[in-house]
Amino acid sequence: MHIVHTEASCGWGGQELRILSEAEGMIKRGHSITLLAPQKAKIYAEAVRRGIPVVALPIARKSLCGLLAVRRWLKSNAVDVVNTHSSTDSWLVALAYRTIKDVPPVVRTRHISTTVANNWATRWLYGKATQHVVTTGEILRQRLITENRIDQSRTTSIPTGIDINHFAPGDKLAARTRLNLATDGPLIGCIATLRSWKGHRYLLDAFATISDNRARLIIVGDGPQRDSLTLQIDQLGLSDRVTMAGNQTDVLNWLQALDIFVLPSYANEGVPQALMQAMSCGLPVITTPVGGIPEIAFHEKNALMVQPRDSKALHDAIERLIGNAPLRAALGSSARIAALEGFATEKMLTRMEAVFFRVLQQHG
Predict the structure, then answer these.
(1) Rounded Cα gap, residues 49 and 45, in angstroms
(2) 11-33, pLDDT tens digit by residue?
(3) 154-180: string of b/e by CB count within 10 Å (b at 16+)?
(4) CA dihedral 264, 268, 271, 277 (to 10 degrees)
(5) How far is residue 292's CA from residue 18's CA, in Å, rounded to a whole number?
(6) How many helices (H) and strands (E) does the chain have?
């Protein structure tokens, strides 16, 4: 197949990483891939770096220029299936195809759990202009079925896959030494784009009163909340105990260096890749029942779950794990087993491939 991915967002996070990972996997399986994205978007530069075919189009926002550019490219190139990912590119593709004959089927991937508008225009976009909707979690899929009345036969939940061989438990001391991190106390970490709804500020509040003064907090990622979080760290007097590591090309060493992984999101999550990676590395995790997270994290079995925006509960969970090594080991072991059984990239690729073949067959 020639599969075309479209991505209008200029942001960077799990959504963009999934697109790139899926593209690389499909190329290895013998499919042709083209990514359409704004040239200023990080995903464009990253696709170039990874050798994924990418075309720059002015699609960062809804505009006549963007619509004409999408129409011109799609009309001039043989395509088997189009996979759209954000609202803007989904609309541009849908409107462009209104004026082109013999168009290929469109699959829309919904990566996050934000509410989908329930008006006539959006119902047309999801019900007529899109042949199939993929969500990154079953909870997201059920919301589309119940709240937006999308036919359940036209929706599939396919969580993002990760490389479970790469994300594996490792030598903690060696990882800390490589990263020049402290080796004499508990290390708590969070890997996530610095967006408000990832809940970093609640984590900082929780960490500020941790009783073990040797404990350190590592925050890996970058984003619009960086300045706000840096100010909060200063105000809490945590500058010598919190490391803001920024974006990292490969987070494996950072995960292997940790004792505890925390993802305190309060909105918008699908099934977060960072959480899956941490579990695959055999880490005990603390997280929240938001979006698709409860599909992989189970309280007292392979994770500790706390309510969103509750710094006190987050603090208590961290204290509990710091003081209970057997519990850390048990949760981490169960997390690794869950990853081995359900998180593999190949499983995601096989299921996406099946969706593409199915819509092609139905399309005739």
Answers:
(1) 6
(2) 898 899 999 999 999 999 999 99
(3) bbbbbbbbbbbeebbeeeeeebbeebe
(4) -50
(5) 16
(6) 14, 13
